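Structure tokens please, single chain.
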Amino acid sequence: AAIIVSTLLALAGCDRNVEPFDPNEEPREPDLSKIFPEGAEQAARVEPGLPPVPGGGRGAPPVAQEAVVAEATTPAPISGRVEIAPELSAGAPVDAVLFIIGRRGGGGPPLAVKRVPSPTFPLDFTLGPDDRMIQQMPFAGPITLSARLDGDGNATSTGPGDLSGVAIGGPVDPGAAGVVIRLDTAL
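Here you go.
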């Protein structure tokens, strides 16, 4: 009985005029004069969806538009080389895993990580949007790069003989090339 009463009260309180469906009815802008008093500023109406394709691609199929927009907004990867300082190369762990890590702001959780099992040095690398830990995070700079050669392959632990280092020259932006990370610290 309580459900019936609450349903009736909800229906009685609804002042929305629902008319029968008319398939020939043309869509029109709502009358906002009841919501916005005369003289109130209104924001310009923005069409939902993707921004226009350069070159006026109005007639292009949606797939082509999405591909152009994605291509224009995907940042370039960072490329460079990881090397071991000569004085530490003899003590480098064998069958180790190299972790190349990018962080925004120098601290906090990694933005992007690349895991390279059994690397040989010097090692050329790229670190880009596909290596992000959380795909929704923007791959944007400045990005602090570091690397760790880990003997047990576990990113959360360090052991004796593990090596680490940071990018020479400090943080870089996406698209940077020729970045050198030197493993120069024994842990």
